[in-house]
Amino acid sequence: MCMEERSERRYGAALDHLRAAQKPSAGTPLYSRLVNRPLGRRFAAAAYVLGATPDGVTLVSAVCTFSGIALIALVPPVWWLGVLVSALLILGYALDSADGQLARLRGGGSVQGEWLDHTVDAAKVLTIHAAILISVFRFFELPAGWLLIPLAYLVVDSLLFFGMMERDLLLARAAGGRAPASEASTGVLRAILILPSDYGLFCLLFLLLGAPLLYFGVYALMLVCNTIFLLLALVKWYRQLGAHGR
């Protein structure tokens, strides 16, 4: 059997293993469920065949993501920039899914790898809205007050990320170190309703960058949706932690 055939077999076996060991889709927005996880699964299987490490995949994901973020701040908004930024962010997001799947495929990840993954995610949340703020200030013909929208979005996304990470940490500690149980609801309707909170949809938003006012209007609408989602999530998480505390 030639090397190419062996690689194909290893890739197919890795893909089958990842499909069987896929994390539950409960609470996962539609894009992440239908597009990002399957795409990340393929990247993880390919990385496994190539002998890559989860940390290496995380770093490649970071390069793609932060290259796209830098372009937002540095280049005037035109249609081709939107396509390029969206492609880089989507690729970075898929690789962000792949690193964890690769870790499971290799027998489990490390504490260092999990820390690196979450640190990159936190940096992404902070810098992407800062880049949008810079872009609006430099290239958009809007009153200065509109700059508050990226600032507000940065606060909302940061609170959402921190609140979710802290909730998972506290629930795991209450459960003796075990990961928190998945949510019961896995319906497609719920996945659609929480779609505005999906980072994958946010990546696709940049396809509108060539029409700056339309892009910024949809961005502002997503801020409203995510603010509502954050408020509902904070109430839910507070009640969850209270129940475990009792």
Q: Can you describe what's shown?
A:
The protein is mostly helical and 246 residues long. It has one domain: CDP-alcohol phosphotransferase transmembrane (TM) domain (Four Helix Bundle (Hemerythrin (Met), subunit A)). Helices cover 77% and strands 0% of the residues. The model has no long low-confidence stretch (mean pLDDT 86).
Could you outline the blueprint of secondary structure elements for this entry?
Layout: H1 3-20, H2 30-50, H3 54-74, H4 79-105, H5 111-139, H6 148-174, H7 188-193, H8 199-205, H9 212-245
In whole angstroms, how far apart are the ends?
60 Å
**Class by helix and strand content?**
mainly alpha
What would you call the quaternary organization? single chain
Shape: globular
CATH architecture: Up-down Bundle
CATH topology call: Four Helix Bundle (Hemerythrin (Met), subunit A)
Rounded average pLDDT: 86
Number of helices: 9
Largest sheet: none
Write out the CATH superfamily name.
CDP-alcohol phosphotransferase transmembrane (TM) domain
The count of domains is: 1
